[in-house]
Amino acid sequence: MRIEFVPVDTQAGATAALAVLAHEGAALSPEARAANEATGGALARAIAGGRFTGAKGQTLDIVAPNGLEAARVVLVGVDGSGAVEPEAVELAAASAFQAVKTSGVVELVLKLGADAETAARAAFGARLAAYRFDKYRTTEKAEKKPSVQVVKIAAADPVKAQKAYEPLAALADAIVFSRDLVSEPANILHPEEFAARTKSLESLGLEVEILGEAEMAKLGMGSLLGVGQGSVRESQLVIMKWMGAADKSAQPIAFVGKGVCFDTGGISIKPADGMEDMKWDMGGAAAVAGVMHALAGRKAKVNAIGVLGLVENMPDGNAQRPGDVVTSMSGQTIEVINTDAEGRLVLADALWYTQERFKPQFMIDLATLTGAIIISLGHDYAGLFSNNDGLSEKLLAAGKAERESLWRLPLPAAYEKQIESPIADMKNIGGRPAGSITAGLFLQKFVNGVPWAHLDIASVAWKKPSADPTVPDGAVGYGVRLLNRLVADAYEG
Ligand code: BES
Ligand code: MN
Ligand code: ZN
Hints:
Layout (H helix, E strand, L loop, with lengths): L1 E6 L8 E8 L3 E2 L1 H9 L3 H7 L10 E5 L8 E6 L8 H15 L6 E4 L5 H14 L20 E6 L2 H26 L7 H9 L7 E5 L1 H7 L2 H7 L7 E8 L9 E11 L19 H15 L5 E11 L10 E4 L5 E4 L6 H16 L4 E5 L4 H6 L4 E5 L2 H13 L4 E3 L17 E2 L7 H10 L7 E5 L5 E2 L10 E2 L4 H11 L3
Parallel strand pairs: 1-7, 2-5, 2-6, 6-7, 10-11, 10-14, 13-17, 14-18, 15-16
Antiparallel strand pairs: 2-3, 4-5, 8-9, 9-11, 12-13, 15-18, 19-20
The structure holds ligand BES, manganese (II) ion (MN) and zinc ion.
């Protein structure tokens, strides 16, 4: 799908749909009024004949309207009455795209507001809505495929709109990169392949370093390596650097991602039902790679580090056993009671490495860490755990602004009892009560005073069904928008 910015007097042709806005009470926007007049009141009649109220996300499809060349007119609801917020336009553009994407029209003309910022946000919404992971489909029937090939966005000054779209296009590219990683099956996207794909981002000006098992063994990363030891695939640690601040020696910020390319559970093997979902157990690492892509893509004025712990958790003759004791890079020992609580073992070494080597201003880790976070929060929030109120507030605000909501949960010291081991410094599970919290407390043992936040994204990395028109069912790319916004609002310049 292509995006083009066009003059406001552009007419939708015979193979196109025209999208215009309506407010509460089905009140028509100026562009919608023009379409209504041109069609001798077809929009008003369609509204009168149904239940369209102009509520946010509603669409009304008017086919073959008399008086216009367009094949269809789509009315999109945005609530409110007058001025339309950029976010509402983003959603409206996405809803319009969803409404007509397989209708047969090859073009969608969006007339949702003509100023450059509004047009740019419309383009962003349409681009995200059009995401589709179809590279492995070879026999899909033509009539099932999306028909829309170009989205034209009407703007008072198309050149200015294109310019305003640039940073959003960079963000969309990053989200798509992240969604593709999450969508890839695990026979394709094993740790070395994941690392190779991050290496390709060097073309954006990032620096990418890759450590293999021998190097990690030298560093003493027994916790991470234990998880990967049952896999024929080699574990990898990827370090991505974006040095965009004016002062290249300024203290960096750091993001750390859980990248379990497939999580069978290991010897504590998972049930067969739904195990295929565990291909997206690398969603945290995909988010970190995605945000680094976004920062480099828009040349953010910040020094940022992304660290990805990439492993495959498999049962095998050489796999880690329940009861094994491993020594982490921090020197702390861990009794592995359940090999399916592997994400925290990966992050333990990745977090320690990040703070020791980079002494960052803060560390934020993202991980599809616990099923329990889904039980706690459902699919509309990721869990936030932190040792720092200021960082938490900034994250909560960024989440609100980008529709990637977070809910903060506590880290009560009293619950550390649950992860005490009789033979090692800790064990890797704390039983059923507060499962997401004891996972957070485990991670905190590998944070040495640095401001830190842990985002448990098991609830939000994959949406099926998705209620957001900018997020097609499947991989969300969760975290890229959130962290990009955090950096833009609080850590640049
Ligand atoms: N990757 C899973 C968590 C997960 C579950 C992500 C469902 C997405 C959807 C994680 O490695 C895991 O297996 N966690 C266990 C922890 C338990 C053994 C303490 C869990 O949540 O059951
Ligand atoms: Mn697991
Ligand atoms: Zn896992």
